[in-house]
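Researcher: Please predict.
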Amino acid sequence: MRRALSSAVVCVALLTAGCATTGPDNPAATPKSTAPTASASATAEADHSRTVRAAIEALTTAHTVYRWEAGQTGGKTYALTGKGGHDFTRGQGTLEVRLEDVARVEHVFTPERLYLRTTTKKESANWMFTDRSGIKAERLLKTPGNDPEFLLRQVVKAERYRKIGTEKVAGTSTTLYRGELTHAALTLDMSAEARKKTDQIRDMLGGTIPATAEVWIDGRGRLTQLRLEMDLKATMRTTTTLALVGHGEPLKVQIPTDAAEADASHLA
């Protein structure tokens, strides 16, 4: 029998809807961009999409640090932060997302399901699960179910990747590539209603929503960080960042055995 969300699990909706006020700095410290090198400027028109795709296809396992932020220009910013690990070859992993000190939500991903358990100061809910493929995106650049693999699918759909320059990410020298997020990437797996609204925004902006994908790749061709960003000048800004460290290290994913199926279709 499918369960409705309990009062504790309602916090899952808050987390996935982005209702957390921004807290301390991102645990995956955002690197400071360096000015593009002369060679990067000279090859600005070169398309490095194959380089980005190769780095994504080479992913095996990695520890992840996740952050999503959204806010109005000059107003309040909402943020979600999380840490976990993912086996991209097997389509499984874990992620713990926090709403400051109010609540935390544990995620367990399998190829077919997303398991969730919420803990707040007042109560702790039981594990529940939902069909992973059934969770639809409900807003621009908000990852459905906070799924790391979804971000990779969006990054692959970006076009015209340019080499911007070199940067240090967590002490590692990397090359930064920036591409343009297509409308297909922005509306990937969106619900019908969200897709309709996104199409309206595109039309109001003259046919294109300004959004980019940034990818940091180290000297061994490994993806170390990615960031999706949409900046509607003087209106709102949204960013989603995923850092990846410990490439190739073994990860243990324990699948809950006592979870109940739940109607979590709004967990976008």
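Model: The radius of gyration is 18 Å.
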